[in-house]
Sequence to fold (507 residues):
Amino acid sequence: MIEILQTSPLHSIQDQGRFGFAGIGIGNAGAWDMRAHQWVQWCLGHTGHQPSIELIGGGFRARFLADGWFSLTGADCHGRLDDQPLLPWRAHAVNAGQTLTLGTPRTGRVAYLGLQADFSALRWLDSASYSRRDGLGQPLTRGLCLPVSTHAVTPRDVPRQFIPSYQGDLELSVIPHARWPEAAQQQSYQVTTLSDRMGTRLSGEQPLSVQSPEFSAPIPLGAIQVPPEGHPIVLNRDRQSMGGYPVIGCATRLSLGDLAQSAPGRTVYLQTVSPAQARAKLGELADFFGEFP
Amino acid sequence: MTLIWLNEDSFQVTFSSPAAASQWAAGLAQAAPLWLREVSAGFGQVLVMVDIQSDIAQIEQDCRLIKAQAQPTSSSVIRVPVCYDPSFGLDLAEVAQQTGLNIEQVIQHHHSQPLEVLAMGFAPGFGYLGAIDARLRLPRKSTPRTRIPAGSVAIAERQSVIYPTETPGGWHILGRTPVLLIDYHPAPRTLFHVGAQVQFVPISLAEFEAWSDD
Fold:
């Protein structure tokens, strides 16, 4: 059993997401930084179907009541097992009675914790992903106990060349749509403090002017909306399923994870790619991880 | 048929009407090709998400063969009870003032004709209903309410909606319904679907309080 000793309302259980119910207004949810989620499960030899604990902003403690393994990826939150410091992007062995502590992120914003836990009782509509708005999933609360799973574990560490950096300027890859304004590419943006699982608001040097659509439309993952004041919002895993603001393009799947990890103030440039280029890149990841929604 | 790819694994198809879009989406869901991950329709647009590892040419070919499917119950009218008591219709007086009508007329015009479900989305079971009587058309409130009670029936622009859960929102609240928009057991089933006709039926406060779904 794994007992949650300290958590925050920004922490949640997330997997690859909930698909097939958008037609009745149920959102996808799923890991905010899908790549870090996939790797944290890979570190245990699991697929991304297995849920992770998503820790936005760090500040988490859990006690292990059985021997086993866990893994950490994403933001480096000064992890410790009892008094022993832990490196992220690795699998770690744990003994019964030991306590895992994560502090404030050193770089990045979101850490992922992979566990040898049985989440099967916590699945709603084929997914354990928690969605506050939809009222689906088990919220992560202090005192929650997760039963240990009998899943086989193959512990392994992420090869160095695949560990992303969350610092420096961010080149956000964007698939442009019909309303794409050339001006969007000719300036830099900053990540604002309004950045959560629903979306990230960017602040540009010059507001963009985009023609509004006549009707609302279903919103794809990564859609970049431009509301009347002219600053783009990149919509992410907890986006609303319909929207009426003009959409100028979609951020690629990897770029969405990069935004999740971006601290407010980070400089962002928009770089256009074709749907075919973007699809080829995501296809490679899906081939490696089995799936990459 | 033109498929416009919006991101790596999602494309959009545009139709001439909300009903045509939803019927094609229903046809696609019924055909359930292996590459289909998710389909949703709204306001004449269909958004389709596919398995990234499937063949694009095959997807485009399959889509051309999809037969639009009429929704089985679209001819029947879904009756939705609404209590317009002032304790629920928080904006009745303001709407009356802004439209130059009296409160009775606002209520009357809101349920005088059936509305069509133009799109589903925003929240589980949430439907966009329209078009409402032209005399009731108002822009959204300039300052949204931070908390709209669950079940609130509201209007803005050409549409009327029901809030399934407590949420912030900028629509004008006329009343409240005791009915649930989604039932998860044994499988998720919604009261509305795109293309359905919805008739609001006024009920008293006593009827609201005595209401039971059984």
